[in-house]
Amino acid sequence: MSKFRVSSSRFIPVPAQSLFDIVADPRQHPRIDGSGSVKSADVNGPTKLHLGSTFGIGMKFGKSYTMTNTVTEYEEGRLITWKPQGDYTWSYAFTPVDGGTIVTETWDASTSTRRFMMGLLGFPKRNQRGITQTLQRLHDLALEAHDDADRQSTSTS
User: Fold this and answer.
1) Domains held by the chain: number
2) Within 10 Å of residue 42's Cβ, how many Cβ atoms?
3) What is the pTM of this model?
4) Which residues, at least 6 apart from 2, have a Cβ–Cβ distance to it below 8 Å?
5) Measured over all CA atoms, what is the biggest interatomic distance in the chain, rounded to whole angstroms?
6) CA separation for the pair 42, 76 (Å, rounded)
7) How far, in Å, are 1, 21, 89, 138 from residue 10 at the CA level?
8) What is the pLDDT of residues 54-113, one digit of tens each?
């Protein structure tokens, strides 16, 4: 694995489709982002991503800007990858296992022409920390939503 391809996995005791639905909704990205760079619900694009869809999101790294992303890989409930304005990708894979899902988030800049600059700015280590924190936030949000859904189904039964 290249230092410009970093990833982490986490078990979350929630069905894969429920987790996928959170990540495939760009309006949820400010809620799950652990990097601190996704700053706002200033999101434009579809409410659920699909192959080829584009979405913009408010970011901050030193200064505020909007990043436009394009979904480049998509398998419903299993995989979603997008490419920001640049030559790198963000990817989430959802692997169902007994009792929940293994979620793997990956930042891949291994073929980027800007690796030198990314290295100087500390992106590999920064993104590794951000991925770990994002998976924690996804875990917490998904459990909260899953528990709320369980409570509602119990109260209507």
Assistant:
1) 1
2) 13
3) 0.88
4) 110
5) 58
6) 25
7) 18, 17, 19, 10
8) 998 878 777 877 789 999 999 999 999 999 988 999 999 999 999 999 999 999 999 999
- Token digits of residue 115: 């690796």
Compute the C-alpha angle 56/58/62, nearest 5°. Answer: 130
| Domain CATH number, residue 46 | 3.30.530.20
User: Which range marks the domain in which residue 28 is found?
Assistant: 5-156
Dihedral (Cα; 47, 150, 132, 85), 10-degree rounding: 0
**Alpha-carbon span 85 to 123, nearest angstrom:** 16
Which amino acid, one-letter code, is at 35? Answer: S
Q: What are the DSSP E strand ranges found in 13-147?
A: 54-61, 63-75, 79-83, 89-97, 100-108
Residues 8-65 have pLDDT tens digits of 999 999 999 999 999 999 989 888 888 877 776 557 788 999 999 999 887 877 787 7
Q: Angle CA(124)–CA(25)–CA(150) in degrees, nearest 5?
A: 110
The distance of Cα 9 from the centroid of its chain, to the nearest Å, equals: 12
Q: Any residues with CB less than 8 A from the CB of 100 and at least 6 apart, and which?
A: 11, 12, 13, 14, 15
Cα 128 → chain centroid: 13
Amino acid letter, residue 151: R
